[in-house]
Amino acid sequence: MPELPEVETTKNSLAPLIGQKVTTVVVHQSSLRWPVPNDLDQLQGQTLLRLERRAKYILAYFGQAGGVEQNIALLHLGMSGSLTLVEPERDLRKHDHVLISFEHIQLRYHDPRRFGSILWLNDNTQTLLSKLAPEPLTDDFNTDYLWQKIQNKTAAIKTVIMDNHIVVGVGNIYATEALFHTHIHPLRPAKSLTLAEVTALTDEIKRILAAAIALGGSTLKDYVNGLGENGYFQQTLDVYGRAKEPCHRCSTLIETIRIGQRASAFCPDCQKFDNPI
DNA sequence: ACACTAACCTGCAAGC
DNA sequence: TGCTTGCAGGTTAGTG
Fold it and tell me: How far apart are CA A62 and CA A74, in angstroms?
C-alpha cells in the first residue's frame, strides 16, 4: 500500500476539490480498520477548504466557504486503499466503500482489504497524530536526531526506520531500497551503525522519498492517484520485489528474509552483516 | 522503555 | 480444474 510518496501524490491530485461544496455522502461499507463515523454526512453543505498530509494520513479540512473550519477528516489508505475522483455516474466497483459527491465530481474511497480508515479528527483520534515522529523530508529528521534515537536500540535497523515513533512515512519498499543504497544489512542492530552510516541513511531516505514523489509514487499492484493514474517509481526499484534476480550493482542474486513479518530483500554481497562498508 | 507477535481483510499466485 | 497455502505499500494492541 501506499507509503509516503503515494499518499503525498494522492493528496496533491485531490487539489481540484478544494473550494468545492459537498452535496451528498454515501457510506456503503462502514467497517474499515475503525468504523466510519455514522455522522459523516455532516459534510453535506460544507466546502473543502484545504488538504494536508501528516505521515500517511491525509487531513481534509471542511467548513463554510471563506469561513471557519468545522470538520477535519482524517483519511488513511491502509495497505490497499485509494481515493479517486470520478464522474458521479461512473459504475461502482467492488470495494468502493465511501462516496463523497461534490457539485460536478465524486470522491470515492476504495479499499479491498479495509485496513484503511476514515475518521473525524477529534479528542479521541488526535493521539494517532500526536504520537507520530518527525516527517522525513523536514529538517527535524536529521543525522543527529536519528543517531540519538538509535543509541539504545538493538532491534534491526530496518524495523527501526519503519517505526512511526522514529520517523514516519517509510514503509517496506523505501526502507528496503534505502538500506540497499547505503550498503547496510537490514538485520544490523540499529545501535551498531556508525555515525557515517546514519548520515548516509538519513540522506538516502530523504533522497529516495523525494525521488519517488517526483515520479508519482510506486504502482505495484493497485495503487493509483486521485486521477486514476499509476506511479512510475517502481521501475527504478533495485531490490524490493527482486528476490532471486541479479543485483543491479554486482549481479549476486538478491535474497529475501523476513524481518518483523515483512519480506526484506537485500543483496548479500553489497549489504554484508559482519563487514559493513 | 523495548522487542516481538497477532490481528484486522480480500485477492491473487503458486503448489499440489 | 479445484483446493489449500502463503503473501501483499500498514498500524495498533497486547504480550513478555
Answer: 11
Task: Tell me the pLDDT tens digit for each residue of A187-237.
Answer: 999 999 999 999 999 999 999 999 999 999 888 887 889 888 898 888 899
Prediction pTM value: 0.97
One-letter amino acid identity for A33?
R
Which bases on strand C have an atom closer than 7 Å to a protein beta carbon? Answer: 7-12
Class of domain A4-130: alpha beta
Residue pointed to by grid coordinates 536529521: A142
Q: For chain A, which residues make up each domain, given as ranges?
A: 4-130, 143-266
CATH classification number, A143-266, choose in 2.60.40.10, 1.10.1740.10, 3.20.20.70, 1.10.8.50: 1.10.8.50
Q: Which of A115, A93, A137 is nearest to A34 (CA)?
A: A115
pLDDT tens column, A87-121: 999 999 999 999 999 999 999 999 999 999 999 99
* A35 Cβ within 7 A of any nucleic strand B atom: no
- Answer yes or no: A136 catalytic: no
Is A56 in the active site?
A: yes
- Whether A3 is catalytic is yes
